[in-house]
Design a protein that fits this description.
CATH topology: Rossmann fold
Largest sheet: 7 strands, parallel
InterPro entries: KR_dom, NAD(P)-bd_dom_sf, Sc_DH/Rdtase_CS, SDR_fam
Radius of gyration: 18 Å
Domain Ketoreductase: 6-189
Number of helices: 8
Pfam family, one: adh_short_C2
CATH class: Alpha Beta
Strand content: 5-15%
Order of helices and strands: EHEHEHEHEHEHHHE
Shape: globular
CATH superfamily: NAD(P)-binding Rossmann-like Domain
Bound molecules: nicotinamide-adenine-dinucleotide
Family: Belongs to the short-chain dehydrogenases/reductases (SDR) family.
Helix content: 40-55%
Number of strands: 7
GO molecular function: oxidoreductase activity, acting on the CH-OH group of donors, NAD or NADP as acceptor; quinone binding
Strand order of the largest sheet: 3-2-1-4-5-6-7
């Protein structure tokens, strides 16, 4: 397996998409460092995945530079290196331009965008040093969203942060290409995680989502994990600076589709 022994850091890995990515990488033989701010869930997930392979949990708030530094150091202490970074941690916070307050805007941007910058910079510097010393390059995958493209006005800081993640991905990819390090992003549509739970529990909100989803269903976290595995792997060796959208056909649709009554 191409991911065998690849030391992989996954942020926001205690649940949802991050947990599915950690699971997929452990199953594929990677040595996975899971990190999160929810230590109880993170440690429980670590205990589950240990039955499948090499995994360790480390506390890390991605918006805190010292936490990020500790995370990279822990990966290197535990497994000797970092081959892959999955910048997955993210939050939502409702509010439009008239209602969102400055502190909340900062909080979302600090986690979703600055967190990816801090982790990306620390790992990129490690990878570049390794390449200069004759070692292999690595891969970084950022978690974007279809809302990097759509203007989700009811989630202003979120949509701004994900637009930023796409630009961060491109600028990192170009800067790191001479070192052989690839940087890509994934742009999920609606995926069945706790982040989406309130929407899924509300039939009208669910119908609104499905009316914009030609594939007529909400996605599963493992369907995002498989893209992360592809982008981190040698199979994507000539792919960099891209955002791969997994949205059941939402972005190509400029209309709505009929939703059967439930
Ligand atoms: N679920 C969706 O429909 C969807 C769609 C598009 C993009 N995404 C993106 O996918 C990623 C994961 O989303 P999810 O649906 O699994 O969400 P989730 O809320 O289920 O999980 C997010 C995880 O991130 C952790 N986290 C929160 N703040 C953190 C911080 N400061 N530092 C480290 N970890 C932190 C949480 O504790 C949680 O374990 C996010 O970046 C999200 O924006 C999700």
């Amino acid at each position: 397996m191409a991911l065998t022994n690849k030391v992989t850091i996954v942020t926001g890995a205690a649940r949802g998409i991050g947990l599915a990515i950690a699971r997929r990488f452990v199953e594929d033989g990677a040595k996975v460092v899971m990190s999160d701010v929810n230590d109880e869930a993170g440690e429980a997930a670590e205990a589950d995945l240990k039955a499948l392979g090499e995994v360790t949990y480390v506390h890390c708030d991605v918006s805190e530079r010292l936490d990020v530094r500790n995370l990279i150091a822990a990966a290197i202490d535990t497994y000797g290196d970092v081959d892959v970074l999955i910048n997955n941690a993210g939050i939502v916070s409702p509010g439009d331009i008239l209602t969102i307050d400055e502190a909340e805007f900062d909080r979302v941007l600090n986690i979703n965008l600055k967190g990816s910058f801090l982790c990306g910079q620390a790992v990129a510097r490690h990878m570049v040093d390794r390449v200069k010393n004759g070692g292999p390059a690595g891969a970084i995958v950022n978690m974007s969203s279809v809302n990097a493209v759509f203007g989700l006005h009811t989630q202003l800081p979120y949509t701004v942060s994900k637009g930023g993640v796409n630009q961060l991905t491109k600028a990192m990819a170009v800067a790191l290409a001479p070192h052989g390090i690839r940087v890509n992003a994934i742009g999920p549509g609606s995926i069945m995680t706790d982040m989406l739970a309130s929407v899924n529990d509300d039939p009208a909100a669910r119908a609104r989502i499905l009316s914009r989803t030609p594939m007529a269903r909400i996605g599963e976290p493992r369907e995002i994990a498989s893209i992360a595995a592809f982008l981190a792997d040698e199979g994507a060796s000539y792919v960099t600076g891209q955002t791969v959208y997994a949205d059941g056909g939402r972005l190509p649709l400029n209309y709505t589709v009929d939703v059967p009554e439930e």
